[in-house]
Amino acid sequence: MSRVLIRVWRVAKSEALTVHGDNAAKRSLRRYFRVLRNETVSRFLIAKKIAAEWSEDDSLSKLWLEHARCSNDFQSLERKIDVGTPIEEIPSPGKSYLDLKIRIATEILKDCHFCTRGCRVNRLKDGLGYCGCGNAMMVSSIFAHMGEEPELVPSGTIFTMGCTIRCCHCQNWAISQWKETGTEFKAEEMATEIEQLRLNGCRNVNLVEANRHLGLNNGSKPSSA
After folding, report:
1. Is the per-residue pLDDT at 75 higher than 60?
2. In sequence order, what are the residues at sequence separation of 6 or more whose Cβ sits closer than 8 angstroms to the Cβ of residue 137?
3. Cis peptide before 150 (omega within 30 of 0)
4. What is the pTM assigned to this prediction?
5. What proportions of the chain, in percent to the nearest 5, are helix, strand and coil?
């Protein structure tokens, strides 16, 4: 863990160091803390172990049916792993539950309805949605955020460009309304950034596509990546 971050905690967010001993936090965030202590594995790693059956020609509705089946398998495997089944003993399938999620997201991009705007833009063909986003991952900044709740601090924060709401008094208006240009990241490049955030002491981050290229609980990439 980064010594610089620990010094910042002690001055500005000392409760982040002691939250692991808080009984209420331990009860409500039991699995989260277990993952941080490497006592169990992150859910995206479990999702990589669930076999999924789908083809490039499957309709979105068929993909969702397979997703529902995999969701049941995921819950069963998660319970087994959380009580001690080593994830290393479980073979990796050719196509996984995580791959299926990425496939579904890709299909939605063709007729985008990720948010309630439902603008139906084909973002795979360089179209821009109401949010201003296309097919590329455009990022404003990546850093360890100290302003969240203590159990989350430091949080691996990745500010992506665009927004579906466009509030008049947005504190991040330069990002949400594309006043900044942003920097394009590929999934593999983002996985490297996430790895570095974790190695520097960040407790969390959330990007599904990049998780395909991460292999260990501590944010490290698999040797094949």
Report:
1. yes
2. 160, 184, 185, 186, 187, 190, 209
3. no
4. 0.84
5. 45, 10, 50
